[in-house]
Amino acid sequence: MRIRLVAALAGVAAAVLAAPAAAQASDGVTPYIIGGSTVSSAPWAAAVFSNGSFTCSGTIISANYVLTARHCISGTMSVRVGSVNRTSGGVTRTVSSTSTRSDLALMRLSSPVTTSYMPLSSSYPPVGSTNSIYGWGMTCYSGCDASATLKTATVSVTSTNATDAYGGRAIASTGVNGNAWRGDSGGPQVYNGAQVGVASTADGTSRQYYGSVAYNRAWITSVAGV
Questions:
Q1: Integer Cα distance of 130 and 154 in angstroms
Q2: Every domain of the chain and the residues it spans
Q3: Which of 27, 87, 118, 211 is the most exposed place for a label (fewest CB within 10 A)?
Q4: What is the pLDDT of residue 20?
Q5: Among residues 16, 4, 171, 149, which one has the least CA distance to residue 73?
Q6: DSSP state letter for 192
Q7: Dihedral class, residue 186 (left if φ above 0, else alpha if ψ from -120 to 50, else beta)
Q8: pTM of the model
């Protein structure tokens, strides 16, 4: 069963995160990457908070915009940018407005942030290619909290014509040395130094599905100008 990768809120069991079509943003925060390794520097990383609680991962793609997953958007949103620790460092901003398409969301920040922004790809990664994924999600299938430190893992692309939680085009992959799980929602999949996907759903054991950046590229440009 595929579920959205939003982190579980206190008191909400993981089991309530149903199949993508039924899951709601209120189901909670996406989990850590299972396996993989920790990251020492990620100036483009954005930890995403809903009503003050960590809920998802994301990337800053320009001075004014953070890219994350649509199902992460709920309540009053804010971000911490530029720190591999989701609880400290970097800079924080509130979110002034959001735009969504498929399972992607663009959050406009209340004021600009100067950092190294995540480049966006205009093409799909090759099937069979090895990509990197990043996030603060859970580090085990159940009984774990979200990771305090940003993690990364490598995955192998199996299809570029899968679907995300809202029926948009997605990139499917299987884990090489790790997998996405709750709390990784909205985090990036990267190929050749550019973001190709946004974490949407996963089965928690081997497969993950990332909303396609290339498929939504024109929309991203129309909103964020990049």
A1: 6
A2: 130-212
A3: 87
A4: 27
A5: 4
A6: T
A7: left
A8: 0.88
